[in-house]
User: What shape does this take?
Amino acid sequence: MTETADRGVGVITANDYGAMLLSLLLVLAVIIGLAMLVKRLNLKLQNGSGIEVMSSVSLGAKERLVVVKVGDDKLLLGVTSQSVNVLKELPEGFAVTATAKPETMTLQNIWRFARGGKTTKDNNIT
Assistant: This one.
């Protein structure tokens, strides 16, 4: 036999596998803990920004109508993959009801309201 085989160099024992597994689990726990911490800090930073998305309606694959509240102002935005446009500054009394069904909030009702007209009874814009 060679000298290295006699000394046990290069031989991995069950204790070594246990230590490697424990180290791996420790590293994974640290990564998960840091990810949770970053997620919590990010949410707190976003909530403090003063911008709130009140409602959003998909118009297509990459197009949306979004009602946002920025400070005391409420805006109707047209959002595409290429741009964001302010379509209308909404009045003070504008509200989106919490019990609205997504299928009742139609593009026609939003556009009619944005142009100053009345909307149908069963939509979620009041």
Q: What stands out?
A: The CA atoms of residues 109 and 119 lie 5 Å apart. The two ends are 89 Å apart (CA to CA).
